[in-house]
């Protein structure tokens, strides 16, 4: 691989890993398996090692995943809270031992082997035996204070039994039992809401709720297994630590295996694999640790992981079954997604009847046909997926799958036209088929479900099942029509069948009515995002909401027209450039004319940038501008605006006048003396500025507080101005 190709691949991998980190750590909504994620991260690490000129302190390979969320106070860990390096085979586990033996100059090392719990990492601080603080791992050196939520865990004592250190940080994992997970999903099913995907994601999302009363309704559990800072020292080995934690009355793992030598450690991993499914918590691997804490200190750690411990990840559970049929689902954007209907098979604690096939290209790549024997995987992080087929077991003459032929060239829901296109939407990526009918019943149900989701208007209680029923009964055609459905009609909805009715109920209906009334007061950016305007994502909606006062202003936006005007000028500038290779000048006279024309075009572009487009971020580009203007000019867009007017709903934009920070981008790092991070961000936004999560040459200022990390170092290396809170407050006035 050439250095240029390596740099391109490294940049691509960093973007992918950052995307998956955001989904896993901050949103608890991963879309790939741990194995697939670690594969991307390993490829990135190998390329950075091979091409050290492209290494960066900001790379995902050099830092702990960040699970911090808005609304929580950040607290520093007394001792950094690291993650673990992962291994996937025996050779890698033995290589871990070889490195340690060489580093410590000891061949026969003593280890402990214990379950790797699939939950949310947390650090508890007890002072004089009293629980005073619970903090998430965050970014390793500091995390979110979730003490109030952790205090709702009934199995966790608030006071340690017996003699306790003056100060001790005890690390562990928060999880949900399978039984509690099933109870919560059963309640959601009864209320017609979408089911949660798995216990780990639900536990992570629950602990980040801002209302501890809501957290208490879900019976979280915890298990403790390691130490951070401890004064005075109370144990010398991992084995002693488990005994000490039990003596303090804390919940611990059922079993650890103290062993000597890597052969015994590998045997213990195998024994754990046979036992793990009987544990109350999800277990996706085994953790191998040096038993002696003195040796742990000698081995040390990198910035993200200890050298004295490693996680061995068990292979994802798989099973073989047959594909009975391939059905097609239609999402809110019209993407047609194929799903494998399977002969029921028991896998990882549940019966699997369906599995995702992603899109037609993947079906062809894996050569999956109806009637095939296939292998499916359920790794705990995503819904079951088909890994591969076994052509040698195939019935002779089984045809290749053709999506267009399977649906007769029409949308399977509305019968409308479908088209093959490149997409990068939530439902699919790559090449896909899309229903062209905006009024398709499946799309209407999808848009209504999204409209009411927590990320949009947060109309709790109106999930996918209820949305589909309202659309099916023609009670709702466009999302705002939900305001016309009376509480009596909602209460009597039958979400089941005639033979097995499941009535929605007055309590659930009343909750929806209250939530939809509250949503009327939400700002323009929330409503814009909720209405599923094409190409307008969450951050783009926020930027548009900051630059328009209402839907009426946005529908005929001068700003968006100027964005399109600039794009046209740039396109013409490229075409008329004197040095254009695509359209070279025909003569010296033509070249001189072009030079004069380009100077005029440059002046017009500069005038736009300095005037109406000053401070407009890249989020609002020509694609967004064209899409938004076209949508609001279309018949569906006009219907939506008319409906909102009829309902008396007029969401207001959070318009920011030109201020001290117009056109400026800030990056925040460290802990400020008086301001919380979100308070500083609001001041920046109110003054016309923008907040970014990473430092680049385009960063205007880095606002740094105590214990600032790698962002400060990068700012200094790039020459980006660094300011403290006092200077920031002076600038903002």
Any overview of this molecule?
This protein is of the alpha+beta class. The chain folds into six domains: 3-62, Helix Hairpins (Orthogonal Bundle), CATH 1.10.287; 74-313, DNA ligase/mRNA capping enzyme (D-amino Acid Aminotransferase, Chain A, domain 1), CATH 3.30.470.30; 317-435, OB fold (Dihydrolipoamide Acetyltransferase, E2P) (Beta Barrel), CATH 2.40.50.140; 441-519, DNA polymerase, domain 1; 526-647, no CATH class; 665-732, Rossmann fold, CATH 3.40.50.10190. Helix content is 38%, strand content 19%. It is built from 26 helices and 22 strands. The strands form five sheets. Strands 12, 13, 14, 15, 16, 17 and 18 form a seven-stranded antiparallel beta sheet that branches. A five-stranded mixed beta sheet has the order 2-11-10-3-9. Strand 17 (418-424) and strand 18 form a beta hairpin. Helix 17 (524-530) packs antiparallel against helix 18 and helix 20 crosses helix 22. It is globular. The two termini are 52 Å apart.
Q: What would the principal axes of the Cα set say about the shape?
A: globular
Mean pLDDT: 86
What is the number of helical segments per DSSP (H or I, 4+ residues)? Answer: 26
The proportion of strand residues reads 15-25%
Residue windows where pLDDT falls under 50 for at least 5 positions: 423-429
CATH C-level class of the largest domain is Alpha Beta
Number of strands: 22
The percent of residues in helical segments reads 25-40%
The third-level CATH topology of the largest domain is D-amino Acid Aminotransferase, Chain A, domain 1
